[in-house]
Amino acid sequence: MATVKIPPVLRASVGGEKEVAAEGASVGEVLNALATAHPQTQTQLFSAEGELNRYVNVYLNDEDVRVLDGLQTTVGAGDTLVILPAMAGGSR
Amino acid sequence: MSPSGAELLRQVKSQIEEVDPALVSEHLGTDNGMVVVDVRETDEFGVAHIPGAKHVPKSYLETRIETAAPDKDAWVVLYCASGNRSAWAARTLTEDLDYKRVASMTGGIALWKDRGYEIATPRALTAEQRDRYSRHLLMEEVGVEGQLKLLDARVLLLGAGGLGAPTALYLAAAGIGTLGIVDNDVVDLSNLQRQVIHTQDRVGEPKVDSAEATIANLNSDVNVIKYPVRIDASNIMEIIEGYDVIVDGLDNFPTRYLLNDASVRTKIPVVSASILGFDGQLSVFAPYEGPCYRCLYPTPPPAELAPSCGANGVLGVLPGTMGLLQATEVVKLILGEGEPLIGRLLLYEALGATFTELKVRRDPDCPICSRDPESITDDEMGVFPDYEAFCAAAG
């Protein structure tokens, strides 16, 4: 099982966890497994066409999956996926 | 009987090559590979030296000469005040360190000046500055030269809030000579949980005035330039012009995109951080050297995935942590030391006390930084897909 790191804005959708384990041999499979287990994450991660939303970055370990093979990128059992939407908090 | 000091010096001088200042002057600034090294103490070098001379005090000769003169076959000319210390140093380089072509300049800088040759009189720190910045001066990576860079530096802080407050304090303490602060807000009691540059008695005052007052008490070397405005497309180019580094602690996406585009146009590096709850992000966007903010985040998330600290809360210490990481990156950029966080995104999660580092690539199709800076127009700055819908939803 791969480990998926959940960003603050998605934690409410996965019961408050910072990390969850999910099955899958590719990035797409792991994220789909996550969306199946936690349906609220489905629309946050994927567009209606099943593509990863452009405002969500996903990293396999430390590399952006878009420079790898996208959702087809192979995931090993010891790998970590990091889901990262932009944050803008700061000034006020 | 062992020889006297004067006798020994004569012996040393008979063993080394000596050159006349006329010959050094003739070759100075030409492309002949001559390396001129001043072996006097730091304060002597600071008063006046031969233009272009490297500085290696005689007491550090063995350990530092290779930085100044890495090529042992190069023509190395040493000088001191009158030609004696440089004679000893020349013998050390020749006999102990295997330099092949070393000479000591006759008469030192005294004779050089008497002959009327050009000298450089660099700016020096005042006695008070030497005391104030003494812990910097002790560090090889900073020293007098680095401290002068800090004092000459112009850093613009966008926001004197959670991130800007601690950043401004430490940059002022470090002796950043000019700090621009952009903020149109006033100090509120609820700010004081994290915005440590402000004080209880200044609640209701403009944040730029409060920050200026604190900095004035901390370090009178710092000139504060206040911009009590909200940054937008109409004023951003004018405000950021002439700054060496911009510190981004902005609280909203449209302004972050605007800042990105303006900084790419002007090629000013941005040290960017953001915070939420117990989480922080940090990166350095150096235009055309690494990715820009749009390479990392091509579009902002929808409003429900982009909560602000105002709505969701933030641990008061967290902006301190992230702000000081920003300040550290600013100082590194100005000194030109270390590995700046360019092309890397650092995530900090305070509850688990974990740091995660991610790679950020330049996007070859980036709508902004894949283009010439001159081709970026005022109209497209800060605009992103679904901009109008985003702003309408954000109210």
Give a structural overview.
The complex is a heterodimer of chains A (92) and B (395). By secondary structure, chain A is of the alpha+beta class. Chain A is 22% helix and 23% strand. Chain A has a 5-stranded mixed beta sheet with strand order 2-1-5-3-4, with helices on one face. Chain A is globular and about 30 Å long. The mean pLDDT of chain A is 90. Chain B has 395 residues and is of the alpha/beta class. Helix content of chain B is 37%, strand content 16%. Chain B has helices at 5-15, 21-27, 42-47, 61-68, 85-96, 108-114, 127-132, 134-137, 143-152, 164-173, 207-218, 236-240, 253-266, 293-296, 309-312, 318-335, 387-394, and strands at 17-19, 35-38, 54-55, 75-79, 101-105, 154-158, 178-182, 223-227, 245-248, 270-276, 279-285, 344-349, 354-359. Chain B has an 8-stranded mixed beta sheet, sandwiched between helices. In chain B, strands 1-5-4-2-3 form a 5-stranded parallel beta sheet. In chain B, α5 (85-96) links the parallel β4 (75-79) and β5 (101-105). Classes of the chains: A alpha+beta (92), B alpha/beta (395). Chain A binds chain B through residues 5, 7-10, 18, 44, 53-57, 59, 62-64, 67, 82, 84-92, and chain B through 158-159, 161-164, 183, 185, 248-253, 256, 273-279, 281, 296-302, 305-310, 312, 314, 319, 345, 347, 349, 351-352, 356-361, 385.
Percent in strands of chain A:
15-25%
Hey, which two chains have the biggest interface? A-B, 27 and 51 residues
Shape of chain A: globular
Report, as a whole number of angstroms, the end-to-end distance of chain A.
Answer: 40 Å
Biggest beta-sheet profile of chain A: 5 strands, mixed
Oligomer: heterodimer
Radius of gyration of chain A: 13 Å
| Adjacency order of strands in the biggest sheet of chain A | 2-1-5-3-4
**Count, helices of chain A:** 3
Counted by DSSP, the helix tally of chain B is 17
**Strand order, sheet with most strands of chain B:** 8-7-6-9-10-11-12-13
**Amount of helix of chain B:** 25-40%
| Shape category of chain B | elongated
- Percent of residues in helices of chain A comes to 10-25%
Average pLDDT value of chain A? 90
Total beta strands of chain B: 13
Amount of beta strand of chain B: 15-25%
